Amino acid sequence: MSRHFAVGERVRVRQASPPGHVRTPAYARGKDGLVERLCGRFANPEELAYGRLGLPARTLYRVRFAQSELWPDYRGHTSDTVDIEIYEHWLEPAIHA
Amino acid sequence: MHDGHDHPTLPERDEELNRAQITEMALRQLLHEKGVITADELRRQIETMDARTPAQGAAVVARAWTDPAFKARLLADGAAACREAGISTGPFNLVVVENTPEQHNLVVCTLCSCYPRYVLGLPPDWYKSKAYRARAVREPRAVLAEFGTVLADGVAVRVHDSTADMRYLVLPMRPNGTEGWSAPRLAELVTRDSMIGVAPARDP
Fold first, then answer.
1. Which of B68, B84, B153, B194 has its CB surrounded by the most CB atoms within 10 Å?
2. How far apart are the CA of B125 and the nearest CA of chain A, in angstroms?
């Protein structure tokens, strides 16, 4: 089981490229963000996509990323962000703030 | 009536079907043949979906503008507040994000085209376009400017990528000059685009 994270905790999205149906966008992989909220537990959509049950349910997080973290050449304001829904099995603790 | 001689057939068909359309037709026919769903059940579901319009979302927004306690409940649990307002939400959760003088919210689904259909109806074609889906997270301020929305300095842009089980509704700012307006009158100012976040609500 992957560990659980608290609101405000710094997390890193796993850098992985599994085949098939994934719900974590490529532009967020390997990036650090802060847990914005816990959304609840849901059947894993990456399993449901293949007609499986998706159980046990996984915790879904909303993670807030600074635009400058996602796109090093971002030209908007430094306070701009993207919030992305990411399942627990895609998250790991950020190594250092 | 046919008079017996040959004449050239008129090409009378819609655009060429693409792969996804052919797959959908094949799947639909199989579901009918195997008795999983009937054609009438499918038709009724489409009818129900088509009956959903941005008016549902506008009513919710206008109520939030006029009823602070409802607004607090809407921000805490969007789907529960919608049900309280008489809107059936199905299994979907709704995150309501509030525009303020300090932050402007914009909704996109980069992976497909997730959309809060029970409050906004069917999404506009541009929402499903690859250009919008790619650019809304990459250069949101440029996208907003193309919709005529230029933000003041000091306003942060909060993009929400609807990647999984939540759906999103933007609570736009109440326009100035609407003091004392009733909720039904305010709802007329709340456009679909203002609830996706590409534009503000209409001015009175």
1. B194
2. 21
CB–CB of B193/B199 below 8 Å?
yes
Q: Do B156 and A80 touch (CB under 8 A)?
A: yes
Closest CA to A19 of A41, A49, A43: A49
Count of other CB atoms within 10 angstroms of residue B2: 5
Per the CB < 8 A criterion, the answer to whether A83 and A63 are in contact is yes
Q: Give a three-class secondary structure readout of B127-191.
A: HHCHHHHHHHHHCHHHHHHHCCCCCCCCCEEEEEECCCCEEEEEECCCCCCCCCCCHHHHHCCCC
Strand A91-93 relative to strand A10-13, pairing: antiparallel
Specify whether the CB–CB gap between A90 and A64 falls below 8 A: no
Cβ–Cβ gap A62/B159 under 8 Å: no
pTM: 0.90
Fold of B54-196: Nitrile Hydratase; Chain A (3.90.330)
What CA–CA distance (Å, rounded) separates A66 from B143?
18
Greatest Cα pair distance, chain A, in angstroms, is 43
**Topology at the third CATH level for domain A10-93:** SH3 type barrels. (2.30.30)
What are the sequence ranges of the domains in chain B? 19-50, 54-196
| Whole-number pLDDT of residue B15 | 77
Flag if A75 and B160 touch (Cβ within 8 Å): no
Distance CA B52, CA B44 (A): 13
pLDDT number for residue A92 = 95
Q: How many CB atoms lie within 10 A of CB B130?
A: 8
d(C-alpha A67, C-alpha B142), whole Å: 14
How far is C-alpha B73 from the chain's CA centre? Answer: 21
Tell me the domain boundaries of chain A: 10-93
The Cα A52–Cα B36 span in angstroms is: 19
